[in-house]
Amino acid sequence: MSILSKMPERIKIAIAVFLFCTAANAGILDQKPSGAVNDFAGILSTEAGNSLSLLSENLFKKTNVALVIVTVKDLEGRSIEETANLLFSKWGIGAKGKDEGILVLLAPVEREIRIETGYGAEGYLTDVQAKRIIRDIASPFFANKQWDKGLVAVSIACADLAAREHNVALSDITGSEDFSGSDDASARINNYKPNAATFILGALLLLFLIGTRTGRSILSVLLLSLLFSGGRSGHGSSGFGGGFGSSGGFGGGFGGGMSGGGGASGRF
What we know:
- The protein has one domain: Diaminopimelate Epimerase, Chain A, domain 1 (Roll), CATH 3.10.310.
- Helix content is 48%, strand content 12%.
- Helix 3 runs parallel beside helix 6, helix 5 packs antiparallel against helix 6 and helix 6 runs antiparallel to helix 11.
- It starts with a helix and ends with a strand.
């Protein structure tokens, strides 16, 4: 007869409740990545999550740069800088030795975002550039709770800088059919023709953010930022416990990479 069978019923119930609560309250640092996109806050639509996952997988295949997107329910009393750095190290984002990892961490409750860069990514995604991405690209979307649009825009900006560092065209990574994740979304990208005012505004914004050599990148960002114009800004419904798409193309993205705290943070 086992020890458990000898216990009073009320003790068994107490143990069961304790174990349930412990599992339910597992902290962010106890979580394991299910892929490149981990929506623990449950704010991304399925379409956006799957598309971001494909973007990260394509970027990794072409450049070996690991772009990881994480949303959290709350920061559990830590600063977003500490949370991002600990999560980066615990998950080992990027290949060991090369350390070309980029973590985009969003905390909607605290209204904060962090772009954390690995040692190897600091040269082409500098602290100043990360700050500008947050201030000029992310914050306007997040201030209006447009989580899909904001994370897509931030991810594309980071991917563009990484791609150009490795002499890869952004269009090779964001190829509309693959990136869209659906026929409907792909059609919306291919059929969209921005008016002059929209194009000029977007071009000036991206030129200010990144600098020169942005010809095709400008158009790609403008088109892809409209990908989720009809998407939800509320809770997602992926049903995958925070993960999206297939992690098959991103398995090496968690290879022991390290970060020294480079990047930037911002509020919205």
